[in-house]
Q: What sequence folds into this?
C-alpha cells in the first residue's frame, strides 16, 4: 500500500476564507520576519516597535510613508489596470523611468515657462512618455500575439540604459564628478507641498488617479467592455468587441500611470534625473497589485502597507536589525498569499493506492 | 591595442556568469517553467559565496555553498509553481525581491572586506604566453574555461539523451509527455532546482572572482539579462553562450571606455543587443509559431492531470 | 511491460490463440463521477487477447471517461482494473503503460516539434538518433504504416498523425490498444486501411478496443461489442449475433414516438434562417459537407446526431460566429440568440459576477448607462429580475460565475439571451449535464419563445428531448443532413439508425 497526496480543485471557496487569506498572509509575513530577526539574535518585538514609530507612529514617519507610498500606488495601479484587459505589465520600471526622462526633458528645455505651467507640462510629458513606452509593447501583442511579458522586460532594461546615456552624457551635471545624476531642474519645477504638511501633492494626484482608474474600469460601459475582453476573449469576440484595440489603449493608460509616477518622483523628491530614481518600484507594483487582489482601490491600501514597511525599516538602528528586512517581509507576505490562493483553489486528499509489485507509479504532485 | 585585449578579456570574465545564469534558466524554461527569480538567486549566491569564502578561506566551499543557496531558493519556486500551481510570474518576481532583500540583510557588514583566497585563476602554461590571444583566452579561472564545455554538455543532454528528450517533452506538451509515462513533475522540479544552482554559481562568480567584494545589489540587473539571453538565444544553449559573451563584451567595453575617457555612448551601445533582439522577435514571432521553433509551447503554464 | 520491439515485428500469422481462461484485461465495477454527474456506473469490461471489441454509445454515455481510467489519466471512484490477473495501480499513466495498455486519443497527444522517431520513443529508454530511426522505420514497415522517421510531426497530415500514435503503441510492445473514435478524422479509404491494420494486429495477439458510434464499423471489424448508455453497460456480446437494428435500439433505448411540447403553429411562417450548401473545413475531413437547412417562425427544428458529426460547426454557422468555406447563410431575424454548448468558455466570463454576465447585451444601451457612467444599480435591478424569472440559484448576484453549477450557468445564459426577445434562437446541447429542474426550465423557455414567434434551431444529443420538443426533426451524420421528419412521423428506432449512419431500412 502506498499513500499519496493529491490536489483536487474546489468549486469556489467560502467568502470568509477569501477575505481571510490576504489578512493571514500579512500576518504570516510579519511572523516569519520576526523569526528571521530572532535567528539573527535580535528582538523582534522591539524591532517592530521601532518600525512602527518610524513609519506610522510619528508625524515625520507618517509623512515619509505617504511620500514613499505615492509611486507605489501608481505602479500598483499600472499593473492592476493592465490586468483588467488580461495583460501582465511588468514594464512599470521602464515606463516610470521614461516618464521621468520625458519630464526632465521638458524641465530642462522649456524652463522659460511660468512655474505652474512648467510643472503641468512636465507631468503630462511624464504620462505621455510612459504611455508610449507601454504602447511599444502593446502593439506587437495585439497584432501578432507577441508575449508582452518578454517585451516589457526588455524595455525595462532599454529604458535604464537610455537614462544612463542621458545622465552620463548630454544631461549630465558638469559638477557631478562621475556621479550618476543629471543637471538640477529649475526651482519652479518642484511639486508644491500639501499645505500644512511635508508631503508633496503627488500623493493627491496618485489618489486622484486611483479613483479615476476605478471609475473608468468599473463605472463606464467602455471599462465594462474591457473587462469582458480581459476576462474571456472568445466571449468578447462573440459579442463583437475589438480586443486588440482595447489591449493597446489600456496598456497605454497603464504606462501613463507608471510614467506619472516617474514625473512625480522627479519633481517631488529627487529634483534630478538620477540612477535610483526608482527603487524597484515597477516590480514591487506587481506584488502590490497582487496583494490588492487586482482591486484598484485596494492598491492604495496595499501600497501604503508596503511603504510603511520600508520607511519603518529605516528607523531600525537600536535593535541592530538590518534595513533590508522590509523587503524580506514584503516578499514573504506575497509568498504566503500565493500559498493561500492555492489553498482556496485546491483541497488536499490523501489516497491509498494498491501498488503492483515492482511497478513505478507516476505521481501527480 | 591593450585596450582591445583588455576589453575582450573582460568580456569573457563578464560573460561567464551571464552564461551560467542563462544556461540554468534555459534548462528550467525548456522544462516549461519560467523562473523570473534569477536575479534574486544570483544575489543570494553572491552573498553566501562571499561570506563562506571569507570565513573558510576556500573558494571551493564558497562556490558549493552558493550553488546550494541558489538551489534552495529555486526549490521554493518549484514547490509553489509546480506543486501548488501558483502563477509563475508573480512567484518569480517575488523571489527576486526576496533574494535581493535576504542578500542585503545577510550581507550587511560584509562590504569592504576581501577574501584572501586563491580565486582559482589558472593561466594555462605555454598558451597564456601567446601575445594577445594568450591574455584574452588563456588566463582565466576554472569557471570561465568550463563554460563552453558546460554549454556543449547541456546541448548534448537536451538533444542527444533520453533525459533531454523527456525534459523537452515536459516543456512542449506536458500532457503528451505524461501520457507517454514521462515523470513530468519530477523533471520540472529537477530542472528548476538545477537552474537555481546555476544562478547561485553565477552570483558567487561576481563576488568571489570578479569584484572580490560584496555590495548590496551588486549583480545590477544581470539576472534579468540572463533571462533575456535565453530568449535572445532562442532557447538553444550554444546560441545562449554566444549571446552571453556578446553581452559580456559590450559590458566590458563600457568600463574600458569609461576608464579611458572615450566619449562614446557606451549605454547606447549596450542597448543594441536588446533592441536587436526585440526587432528579431517581432519579425520572426509568427513564423516561429508556424515553424515550431523557439519558445517551448508549454512555458509558463502549470500542468494538471485531471483538468477538464 | 516494455518489451523489446523485436517481438512486435513478428510475422502476423504467428498470433497467439486467445487464451480464454485468463482475460487480458478485466475491468470491474468502474464508477466515476464529476461533481453530481455520474459518468461511469459500475461498468464491467473484459477483453481477451486477439479480440477486437467495439465500445459503442452516444456521447455522454461514458466511453471517454472509461478509457481515461483505463490508461491511468483519471482515477475511478470505485472499481478496479486487472491485466492478466494483476491489479493495476489507478491514476498512473506509467503503471498503465507498464502493464501494456496504450491509448490513441482523439487529440493524439504528440509533441509537434519532435520528429516521428522522437515521438515514438518518448518515455522508453531510447532518445532518438540513427539507430532508433532505423528501428522505427522497420517497425512501421512491419505494421504496414507509411511514416518517415525523420519527418517533423507538425508537418504530418491528420491520418499520418494517427498512424504515428499507433506506431508509438506498437514500438512499446503494448498488448492492449485502445482507439478513441479513430475514424472521425479519416476518409473512407483511410478507414478501410485502418481496419486492415487492426485485423492484422489482432491476429498477432493484440487486444483492440475501439470507441465508435457508427454501427457499420462495429459489424465490419469488431468481434465483440460493449454498448454503454448513460454510464451503464446495456449490452456485452458477440457482434455476430446482433444486427444494426438491435444495436441502434440498445444504443439509444426504446422509446416513444410523437411529441408533447411540439405542435406550434408550425413552420409556415417566414424563414428566420436559411442555410444553403454550407461547407465548413475541419481537421482532415469536412466538418460540414453541403448542409441545407431552414428554420422558420414558430417552429423548433431539432437536429439529432451523435456528437462529432458537425453539430458544433452547424451551431456556429447558424449563429454567424463562423463563416462557411462555401455556401450561403440567409438570416431574416432581427435579433439572434446563441446558447453555446461550451457555456463557460464561450458564452460567459467566469471571473465576472452573475449580474455582470446578465448585462452583456444591455450594458451599452441608454437604459443601463451613459457613456460616462454605468448605472450599476439598474444592472443589479435587471439581474434581480432575471434571477427571479429564471430561478437562477445564486444567493449573491455579485459572486463570480465560475463557481456556479451547469444548471446555474445555463439559466444565466438563457436569461440573458432570451430576454432580448430574439427571432432566431440557436441552442447547442442546452440541457446537457443539467439537473432535472433546470433542464425542464430550459425546454419550457424554448417552447415559450417558439410560441411567441421565434424560430429555434435545437441541436441536442438527447433524443428523447428532441422527440418531445421538435416540430421538425433532422438527423446530421458526417456533416450532412441525412434525414428529415415532420411532426407525427418520428420513429425513434429509425432515427437512431440514421444517427449511426444506416441508410433507409
A:
Amino acid at each position: 500500500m502506498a499513500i499519496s497526496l493529491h490536489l483536487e480543485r474546489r468549486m469556489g471557496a467560502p467568502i470568509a476564507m477569501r477575505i481571510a487569506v490576504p489578512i493571514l498572509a500579512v500576518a504570516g509575513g510579519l511572523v516569519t520576519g520576526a523569526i528571521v530577526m530572532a535567528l539573527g539574535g535580535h528582538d523582534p518585538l522591539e524591532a517592530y516597535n521601532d518600525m512602527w514609530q518610524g513609519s506610522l507612529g510619528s508625524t515625520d514617519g507618517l509623512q515619509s510613508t505617504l511620500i514613499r507610498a505615492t509611486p507605489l500606488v501608481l505602479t500598483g495601479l499600472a499593473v492592476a489596470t493592465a490586468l483588467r484587459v488580461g495583460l501582465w505589465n511588468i514594464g512599470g520600471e521602464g515606463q516610470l523611468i521614461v516618464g521621468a526622462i520625458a519630464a526632465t526633458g521638458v524641465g530642462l528645455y522649456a524652463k522659460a515657462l511660468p512655474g505652474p505651467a512648467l510643472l503641468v507640462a512636465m507631468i503630462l510629458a511624464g504620462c505621455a512618455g510612459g504611455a508610449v513606452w507601454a504602447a511599444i509593447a502593446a502593439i506587437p501583442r495585439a497584432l501578432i500575439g507577441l508575449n508582452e511579458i518578454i517585451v516589457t522586460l526588455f524595455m525595462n532594461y532599454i529604458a535604464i540604459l537610455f537614462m544612463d546615456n542621458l545622465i552620463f552624457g548630454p544631461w549630465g551635471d558638469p559638477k557631478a564628478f562621475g556621479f550618476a545624476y543629471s543637471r538640477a531642474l529649475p526651482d519652479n519645477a518642484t511639486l508644491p507641498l500639501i499645505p500644512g504638511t511635508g508631503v508633496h501633492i503627488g500623493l493627491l494626484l496618485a489618489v486622484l488617479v486611483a479613483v479615476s482608474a476605478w471609475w473608468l474600469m468599473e463605472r463606464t460601459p467602455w471599462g465594462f467592455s474591457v473587462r469582458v475582453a480581459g476576462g474571456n476573449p472568445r466571449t468578447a469576440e462573440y459579442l463583437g468587441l475589438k480586443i486588440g484595440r482595447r489591449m493597446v489603449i489600456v496598456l497605454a493608460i497603464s504606462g501613463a500611470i507608471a510614467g506619472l509616477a516617474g514625473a512625480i518622483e522627479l519633481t517631488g523628491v529627487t529634483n534630478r534625473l538620477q540612477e535610483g530614481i526608482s527603487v524597484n518600484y515597477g516590480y514591487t507594483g506587481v506584488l502590490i497589485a497582487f496583494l490588492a487582489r487586482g482591486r484598484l482601490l485596494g492598491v492604495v491600501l496595499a501600497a501604503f502597507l508596503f511603504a510603511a514597511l520600508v520607511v519603518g525599516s529605516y528607523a531600525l538602528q537600536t535593535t541592530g536589525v538590518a534595513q533590508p528586512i522590509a523587503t524580506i517581509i514584503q516578499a514573504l507576505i506575497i509568498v504566503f498569499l500565493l500559498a493561500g490562493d492555492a489553498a482556496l483553489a485546491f483541497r488536499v486528499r490523501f489516497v491509498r493506492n494498491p501498488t503492483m509489485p515492482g511497478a513505478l507509479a507516476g505521481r501527480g504532485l | 591595442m591593450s585596450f582591445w585585449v583588455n576589453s575582450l578579456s573582460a568580456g569573457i570574465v563578464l560573460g561567464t556568469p551571464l552564461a551560467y545564469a542563462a544556461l540554468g534558466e534555459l534548462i528550467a524554461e525548456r522544462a516549461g517553467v519560467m523562473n523570473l527569480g534569477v536575479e534574486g538567486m544570483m544575489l543570494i549566491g553572491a552573498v553566501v559565496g562571499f561570506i563562506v569564502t571569507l570565513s573558510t578561506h576556500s573558494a571551493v566551499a564558497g562556490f558549493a555553498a552558493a550553488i546550494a543557496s541558489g538551489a534552495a531558493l529555486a526549490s521554493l519556486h518549484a514547490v509553489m509553481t509546480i506543486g501548488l500551481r501558483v502563477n509563475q510570474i508573480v512567484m518569480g518576481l517575488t523571489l527576486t525581491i526576496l533574494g535581493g532583500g535576504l542578500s542585503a540583510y545577510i550581507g550587511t557588514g560584509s562590504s569592504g572586506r576581501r577574501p584572501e583566497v586563491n580565486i582559482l585563476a589558472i593561466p594555462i602554461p605555454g598558451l597564456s604566453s601567446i601575445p594577445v590571444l594568450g591574455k584574452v583566452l588563456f588566463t582565466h579561472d576554472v569557471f570561465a574555461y568550463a563554460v563552453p564545455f558546460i554549454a556543449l554538455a547541456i546541448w548534448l543532454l537536451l538533444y542527444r539523451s533520453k533525459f533531454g528528450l523527456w525534459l523537452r517533452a515536459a516543456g512542449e506538451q506536458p500532457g503528451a509527455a505524461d501520457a507517454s509515462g514521462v515523470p513530468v513533475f519530477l523533471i520540472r522540479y529537477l530542472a528548476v532546482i538545477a537552474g537555481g544552482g546555476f544562478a547561485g554559481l553565477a552570483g558567487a562568480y561576481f563576488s568571489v572572482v570578479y569584484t572580490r567584494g560584496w555590495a548590496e545589489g551588486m549583480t545590477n540587473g544581470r539576472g534579468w539579462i540572463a533571462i533575456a539571453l535565453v530568449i535572445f538565444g532562442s532557447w538553444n544553449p550554444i546560441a545562449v553562450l554566444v549571446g552571453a559573451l556578446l553581452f559580456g563584451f559590450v559590458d566590458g567595453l563600457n568600463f574600458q571606455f569609461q576608464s579611458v575617457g572615450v566619449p562614446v555612448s557606451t549605454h547606447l551601445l549596450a542597448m543594441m543587443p536588446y533592441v536587436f533582439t526585440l526587432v528579431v522577435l517581432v519579425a520572426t514571432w509568427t513564423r516561429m509559431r508556424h515553424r515550431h521553433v523557439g519558445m517551448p509551447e508549454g512555458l509558463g503554464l502549470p500542468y494538471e492531470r485531471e483538468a477538464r | 511491460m516494455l518489451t523489446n520491439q523485436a517481438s512486435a515485428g513478428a510475422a502476423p500469422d504467428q498470433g497467439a490463440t486467445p487464451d480464454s481462461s485468463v482475460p487480458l484485461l478485466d475491468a470491474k465495477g468502474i464508477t466515476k463521477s464529476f461533481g453530481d454527474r455520474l459518468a461511469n456506473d459500475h461498468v464491467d469490461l473484459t477483453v481477451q487477447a486477439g479480440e477486437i471489441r467495439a465500445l459503442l454509445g452516444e456521447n455522454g454515455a461514458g466511453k471517454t471517461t472509461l478509457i481515461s481510467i483505463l490508461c491511468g489519466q483519471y482515477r475511478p471512484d470505485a472499481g478496479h482494473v486487472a491485466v492478466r490477473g494483476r491489479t493495476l495501480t489507478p491514476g498512473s499513466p506509467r503503471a498503465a503503460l507498464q502493464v501494456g495498455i496504450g491509448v490513441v486519443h482523439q487529440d493524439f497527444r504528440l509533441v509537434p516539434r519532435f520528429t516521428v522517431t522522437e515521438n515514438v520513443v518518448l518515455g522508453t529508454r531510447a532518445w532518438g538518433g540513427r539507430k532508433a530511426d532505423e528501428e522505427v522505420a522497420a517497425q512501421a514497415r512491419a505494421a504496414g504504416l507509411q511514416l518517415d522517421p525523420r519527418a517533423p510531426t507538425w508537418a504530418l497530415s491528420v491520418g499520418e498523425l494517427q498512424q504515428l500514435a499507433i506506431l508509438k503503441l506498437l514500438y512499446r510492445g503494448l498488448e492492449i490498444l485502445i482507439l478513441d473514435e479513430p475514424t472521425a478524422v479519416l476518409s473512407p479509404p483511410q478507414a478501410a486501411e485502418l481496419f486492415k491494420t487492426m485485423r492484422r494486429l489482432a491476429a498477432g495477439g493484440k487486444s483492440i478496443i475501439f470507441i465508435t458510434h457508427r454501427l457499420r464499423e462495429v459489424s465490419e471489424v469488431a468481434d465483440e461489442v460493449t454498448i454503454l448508455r448513460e454510464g451503464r453497460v446495456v449490452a456485452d456480446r458477440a457482434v455476430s449475433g446482433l444486427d444494426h437494428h438491435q444495436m441502434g435500439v440498445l444504443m439509444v433505448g426504446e422509446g416513444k414516438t410523437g411529441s408533447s411540447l411540439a405542435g406550434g403553429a408550425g413552420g409556415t411562417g417566414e424563414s428566420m434562417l436559411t442555410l444553403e450548401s454550407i461547407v465548413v473545413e475541419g481537421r482532415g475531413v469536412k466538418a460540414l459537407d453541403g448542409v441545407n437547412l431552414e428554420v422558420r417562425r414558430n417552429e423548433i427544428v431539432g437536429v439529432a446526431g451523435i456528437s462529432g458529426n458537425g453539430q458544433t460547426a452547424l451551431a456556429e454557422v447558424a449563429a454567424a460566429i463562423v463563416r462557411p468555406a462555401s455556401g450561403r447563410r440567409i438570416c431574416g431575424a432581427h435579433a439572434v440568440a446563441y446558447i453555446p454548448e461550451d457555456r463557460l468558455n464561450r458564452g460567459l466570463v467566469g471571473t465576472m459576477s452573475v449580474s455582470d454576465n446578465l448585462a452583456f447585451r444591455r450594458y451599452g444601451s441608454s437604459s443601463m448607462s451613459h457613456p460616462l457612467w454605468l448605472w450599476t444599480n439598474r444592472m443589479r435591478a435587471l439581474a434581480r429580475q432575471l434571477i427571479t424569472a429564471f430561478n437562477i440559484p445564486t444567493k449573491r448576484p455579485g459572486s463570480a460565475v465560475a463557481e456556479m453549477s451547469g444548471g446555474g450557468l445555463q439559466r444565466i445564459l438563457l436569461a440573458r439571451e432570451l430576454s432580448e426577445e430574439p427571432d432566431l434562437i440557436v441552442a447547442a446541447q442546452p440541457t446537457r449535464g443539467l439537473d432535472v429542474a433546470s433542464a425542464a426550465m430550459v425546454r419550457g423557455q424554448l417552447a415559450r419563445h417558439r410560441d411567441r414567434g421565434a424560430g429555434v434551431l435545437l441541436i441536442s444529443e438527447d433524443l428523447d428531448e428532441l422527440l418531445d420538443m421538435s416540430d421538425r426533426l433532422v438527423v446530421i451524420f458526417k456533416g450532412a443532413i441525412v434525414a428529415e421528419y415532420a411532426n407525427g412521423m418520428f420513429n425513434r428506432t429509425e432515427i437512431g439508425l440514421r444517427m449511426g449512419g444506416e441508410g433507409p431500412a
User: Anything to note?
Assistant: Residues 39 and 223 of chain B are 4 Å apart (CA to CA). Chain B touches chain C through 25 residues (CB under 8 Å).
